[in-house]
Design goal:
3 domains, Nucleotidyltransferase, domain 5, alpha+beta, elongated, DNA binding, 7-stranded antiparallel β-sheet, 5-stranded mixed β-sheet
């Protein structure tokens, strides 16, 4: 999606008020549609009755319903209550409720909130109508204009100011869009008394030329330390090279600064993939609001969302890769860190973050991770007494507040798993036969049994001590 921002100018006072009234009615229609969708009303019923209520044509109404549905679905995806959505911005609304400002400062804040609440209009593009019927770009001798349908076959023409003299490319691009008759969407927003237009068109990407045929680049983005870990693997899944890209600029700073550096780091990743001629494999994450749902929870989820907008960075990597004709593969991120730290970190003497990127790369090639035999033999050798001792050790650590309670649940599940296998000599060599546990559950068992005694307070970053157990099968050495 390509978005071009422009300012609407050369509007006389009467025309500006007409456009503002249209934006106010459209915003009211969108909020009304949102509340009716919450109550279970159908789109077709709303589209039939709302044009008369808000004096809007059917296209404007349909776009308002679409925006309302999008807001509703977004709230659900983020784990928010759809009934608590505040149009105009929750943050501004909470500030107004506090009444900590008086006079001009309070009025200025109130105007900002009202502009965000009432100063909106969205119009979708339509290929059959050669671009956009309600808000159309028109090129004239004296400049580029936006023709806005304000109702009853009446139009307001506003000149588009899309760039300064030294940067006229945006206005030239808008003229090219108008002359090509391709569909484009227009969104109007009121800010500080001025009306801004945002033109959006679907970007056409070149044909994919760099695929996973010659291997891939696996990407793991870490909240602590703030960096991108990457690994290069061949088509068979063998590790070739790896590296880390620190991202200190994304820890703090303004929104614009973080956005700039997100693009910067996305360019670095795509540059690596292009130079090596390999596809990119990334995690497909759905991080929920407040850390209550999703792939991560609590502090890690909040840090990822607030410090460097994890999903935004991944989205930029996908966009830039597509522009370069590089295939992007998204994989399930479940247990990539656990598998990496237990299997590949001690084997290759690499950090758990690099190891996680390696697992992601292999998963992108469709490879499965076999549990090492020596780990199976280690679990098979654990006696019931040792398991109970480990369980009591974890309980004591939890009481001392050195471990979170979730670790106690993990160790209980590990013990339940091993005890469910019976007492045959070869019980762990086929650990999943006849049980309700998945392969991922078994990796969790390994993490609890191996990592917890090694470092009870937190997951270590150095797993070199596991090399003897993994490679040589040494697990009785104190």
């Amino acid at each position: 999606m390509i978005v071009i921002q422009a300012k609407l100018i050369s509007l006389n006072q009467e025309d500006k008020q007409t456009v503002l009234d249209l934006m106010r009615r459209w915003s009211s229609c969108m909020r009304f549609a949102y509340n009716r969708l919450l109550e279970g009303e159908k789109r077709a019923d709303l589209k039939r009755k709302l044009p008369q209520v808000f004096n809007l044509n059917s296209r404007y109404v349909d776009d308002a319903i679409m925006k309302a549905r999008s807001t509703l679905e977004s709230a659900k995806e983020l784990g928010k209550s759809p009934r608590k959505v505040i149009f105009g911005g929750k943050k501004l609304f909470r500030k107004l409720q506090k009444h900590h400002l008086n006079g001009k400062a309070y009025e200025k804040l109130k105007i900002r909130w009202q502009e965000k609440r009432k100063g909106n209009l969205y119009s979708r593009g339509d290929k059959s109508k050669k671009g956009n019927l309600n808000t159309r770009i028109e090129v004239r001798k004296n400049g580029t204009f936006l023709r806005i349908n304000v109702g009853e076959r009446k139009y307001v023409y506003a000149r588009i100011e899309a760039g300064y003299k030294k940067n006229k490319r945006r206005e030239e691009l808008l003229q090219e869009i108008a002359e090509s008759n391709i569909p484009y969407s227009v969104e109007l927003k009121l800010k500080n008394g001025n009306i801004y237009a945002y033109f959006a068109i679907e970007e056409k990407y070149p044909e994919i030329k760099i695929t996973k045929e010659k291997g891939v680049i696996g990407i793991d983005i870490n909240a602590y330390p703030d960096n991108i870990s990457w690994t290069e693997v061949d088509e068979k899944g063998n590790l070739i090279s790896y590296g880390n890209i620190p991202m200190p600029e994304l820890v703090s700073g303004s929104k614009d600064k973080k956005e700039y550096f997100r693009w910067h780091y996305a360019h670095e990743i795509v540059k690596i993939a292009k130079e090596k001629g390999k596809a990119i494999v990334i995690e497909k994450l759905d991080i929920k609001e407040k850390g209550k749902k999703g792939d991560f929870s609590g502090r890690k989820s909040r840090r990822i969302r607030h410090n460097f907008s994890y999903k935004s960075l991944l989205s930029k990597i996908k966009t830039l890769a597509k522009r370069e004709g590089i295939e992007v593969i998204e994989v399930d991120p479940s247990y990539t860190s656990i598998i990496g730290m237990l299997k590949y970190s001690p084997q290759y003497m690499i950090t758990k973050d690099i190891a996680a990127a390696y697992v992601i790369a292999r998963r992108g090639l469709g490879l499965q991770e076999k549990i090492p035999d020596n780990y199976m033999k280690f679990l098979n050798a654990l006696t019931v007494e040792e398991l109970e001792e480990l369980k009591e050790y974890v309980k004591k650590t939890v009481r001392n507040k050195k471990l979170k309670k979730k670790h106690l649940k993990e160790i209980k599940k590990a013990i339940e798993f091993l005890q469910s296998l019976g007492s045959e000599p070869e019980r762990v060599l086929k650990p999943l036969d006849g049980t309700s546990f998945s392969a991922h559950d078994f990796w969790r068992v390994l993490k609890v049994a191996v990592v917890t005694p090694l470092s009870p307070e937190k997951v270590p970053r150095d797993f070199s001590t596991l090399k003897g157990l993994l490679i040589q099968g040494k697990w009785r050495d104190p």
